[in-house]
Amino acid sequence: MATIEELLRHNETHIDNVATTLRNFPDCAAKVFKPLRDTGFTDFKWVGAGVHSFLVQPTDNDKIVFRVSAKGSRQKIDTPFLLKAGYENDCNIAWLPSQPVHLDMLLAGSAYVSEQDKRLLLEEMKQAGWDVENRKDEENLWRNVINIPYKGGLRPIICDPLAMGIHFRDLQAKKMDGTLNSCSSNYITLQDQADAYNTAIENDPTGRLKKLIPKPVTFPETEVIRVEPKRSAGVS
Q1: Parallel, antiparallel, or unpaired for β 182-184 and 223-225?
Q2: Which tens digits make up the pLDDT trace of 26-82?
Q3: CA-based nearest residue to 94, from 9, 21, 35, 42
Q4: How far apart are CA 189 and CA 150, in angstroms?
Q5: Which of 53, 78, 177, 196, by CA, is between 20 and 30 Å from 86?
Q6: Are 158 and 55 in contact (CB under 8 A)?
Q7: pLDDT confidence of residue 72
Q8: Is 153 exposed, middle or buried (0-12, 13-18, 19+ CB in 10 A)?
């Protein structure tokens, strides 16, 4: 059994990472993780860390992960190509009141992304109006993509909001209304994401997720572009 604070002490992280800061300031860490502790989450395993965030997972629930990040790295974008959080909480801490620490919950996915997965994501984004040809920093882009379960298979999705602005220019001219929230009928919609969160909450035998998230998760309605169905990018 390991608390998040214990995991932080036993994992080397980059000096600029929010994990390093919370490891060095236990009182701040206790404040950030209070919502999880108060709802019965006490045992975690380490998933990974980046420059601005780190991920942990309850040892008895492989459907979700919790991400802790600097608030300045978060962006509110309603697009099905970004994995939206099913739970979010900002915590102001004394040493940096202008940059709250952001705690959120995400659907767990696979970090393995094949070349076929990459092509599928870019094709889907292009069809919805994204300027994928002008993407930047290709190598780091795919570090921010995971596969999540969808209709018996998997779908690639961007898991870090910061990556949307870094790797893609805004939109192609055909999306003159500026609508980001659209995808083909072959892709996971925001409603599908919300349904997956609500299923995870209802199926949690401990009831902890229901305490943490008492109301059903809802996301904006996705504009669906009807297309012929394609073979899944992977199998679950």
Answers
A1: parallel
A2: 888 889 999 999 999 999 999 988 777 899 999 999 999 999 987 665 567 789 999
A3: 21
A4: 10
A5: 177
A6: no
A7: 61
A8: middle
One-letter amino acid identity for 5? E
Task: Provide DSSP, the chain.
Answer: ---HHHHHHTS---TTSHHHHHHH-HHHHHHHTHHHHHTT---EEEEEE-SSEEEEEETT-TTEEEEEEEGGG------TTB---SEEEEE--TT-TTS-EEEEEEE--BS---HHHHHHHHHHHHHTTB-GGG---HHHHHHTEEEEEETTEEEEEE--HHHHHHH--SB-TT-TT----EEETTS--HHHHHHHHHHHHHT-TT-HHHHH--SPP--PPPEEEP------SSB-
Pull the structure tokens for residue 54: 């780190």
Residue 134 backbone dihedrals phi, psi, to 5 degrees:
-105, 25
**Burial zone of 134 (CB within 10 Å; 0-12 exposed, 13-18 middle, 19+ buried):** exposed
Task: Pick the more confident residue, 169 or 125.
Answer: 125
The answer on pLDDT for 96 being more than 60 is no
Tally of CA atoms within 13 A in the half-sphere of 214 that contains its CB: 3
Residue type, 72: G
Per-residue pLDDT at 198 exceeds 90: yes
Tokens of 160: 């870090």
User: Tell me, what amino acid is at 105?
Assistant: M
